[in-house]
Inverse folding.
């Protein structure tokens, strides 16, 4: 038992990449005294037990939330309403109910109606992740120096918001608060559209007739492979994101298409000045991300580069007569 625990009992509904990382980080930081987790399938629940990142694994969501002080729902956003309906009547008075969904407007719409009076509903979104999913994919450091956005509904008890903020800070995150609508607009451009573009470009390359699949794979270091990491993200999660943040994504997609048309025109007209000015601006954005510590300054994302073959190091120059 640790004296620094903020939360007596933490219940995690969903124990994949995000739920599993919360459990690992909460345990490592001492943010929660007891961690109870559950997942939808018996296979995942068994795996959570084997991995041992929760104190207890329950078969049902209802058992998991019993007496919990903080309940975090970490499942695809399309399933949040049904789960809220199921657990709502079993939440303890004074408990905080939160989530981690990548869309916030639809989560508020779908979950809020099932939150009983006396329970503090504070939706959240940790802006951190990888392309992997499932209980094995989580790790305790996932949230360190990443942002977690809280979107409390009007009238939420400020003390409960402070508790949730302190919880995420214990996990290493920086916390910001905004409305669900603003969150969905911001994330549409910073996360949802980049995923849509990656899904598109990887699909397009796959369908090209003139370039073989082996050529796409072989020469992917030219830029393509960086899109493939994003395009390998979980299909269920991302299907739900696009279905549930439709308006904001379509709005950003409209702006994107206009900008793409501008660049297309510059290429067609041979307008090097316009291309150079645009690329200079975007390079500054990348540098800005590195400056605020949201990515490494290491070139090529810090990928290791294999050593030169020894024969070539030993004989760097061709010698006459070779
Ligand atoms: P994940 O690794 O696939 O884990 C999903 C969890 O939800 C699993 O425990 C799964 O159980 C359970 N689940 C799936 N469908 C369900 C349903 N219909 N009802 C109840 N439980 C269900 O996914 P994740 O990456 O942790 O994503 C979870 C949430 O975090 C999503 O809302 C996503 O938008 C958000 N998020 C993801 C990222 C990211 O980069 N991945 C980043 C920030 C936020 P089984 O294993 O038994 O199927």
């Amino acid at each position: 038992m640790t004296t620094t625990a903020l939360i007596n009992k933490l219940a995690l509904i969903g124990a994949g990449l995000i739920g599993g990382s919360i459990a690992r980080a909460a345990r490592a930081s001492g943010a929660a005294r007891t961690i109870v987790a559950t997942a939808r399938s018996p296979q995942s629940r068994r795996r959570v037990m084997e991995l041992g990142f929760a104190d207890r694994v329950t078969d049902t969501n209802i058992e998991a939330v019993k007496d919990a002080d903080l309940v975090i729902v970490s499942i695809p956003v399309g399933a949040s309403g049904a789960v809220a309906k199921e657990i709502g009547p079993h939440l303890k008075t004074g408990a905080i109910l939160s989530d981690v969904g990548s869309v916030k407007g639809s989560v508020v719409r779908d979950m809020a109606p099932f939150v009983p009076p006396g329970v503090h509903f504070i939706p959240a979104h940790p802006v951190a992740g990888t392309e992997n999913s499932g209980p094995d994919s989580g790790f305790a450091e996932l949230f360190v120096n990443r942002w977690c956005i809280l979107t409390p509904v009007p009238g939420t008890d400020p003390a409960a918001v402070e508790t949730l903020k302190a919880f995420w800070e214990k996990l290493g995150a920086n916390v910001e608060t905004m409305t669900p609508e603003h969150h969905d607009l911001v994330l549409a451009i910073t996360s949802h559209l980049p995923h849509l573009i990656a899904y598109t470009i990887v699909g397009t390359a796959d369908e090209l007739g003139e370039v073989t699949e082996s050529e796409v794979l072989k020469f992917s270091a030219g830029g393509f492979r960086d899109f493939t990491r994003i395009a390998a993200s979980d299909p269920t999660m991302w299907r739900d994101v696009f279905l549930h943040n439709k308006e904001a994504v379509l709005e950003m997609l409209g702006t994107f298409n206009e900008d793409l048309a501008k660049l297309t025109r510059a290429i067609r007209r041979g307008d090097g000045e316009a291309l150079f000015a645009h690329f200079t601006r975007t390079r500054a954005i990348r540098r800005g991300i590195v400056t605020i510590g949201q990515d490494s300054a290491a070139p090529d994302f810090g990928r290791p580069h294999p050593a030169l073959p020894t024969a070539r190091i030993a004989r760097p120059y061709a010698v006459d007569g070779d």
Q: What stands out?
A: Strands lie at 7-13, 32-38, 56-57, 70-73, 96-99, 120-121, 124-127, 147-150, 174-177. The pocket of NAP is lined by residues 14-19, 39-41, 44, 74-77, 79, 83, 100-102, 125-126, 129, 133-134, 234, 237 (CB under 6 Å). Residues 318-322 have pLDDT under 50 and may be disordered. The first strand starts at residue 7 and ends at 13.
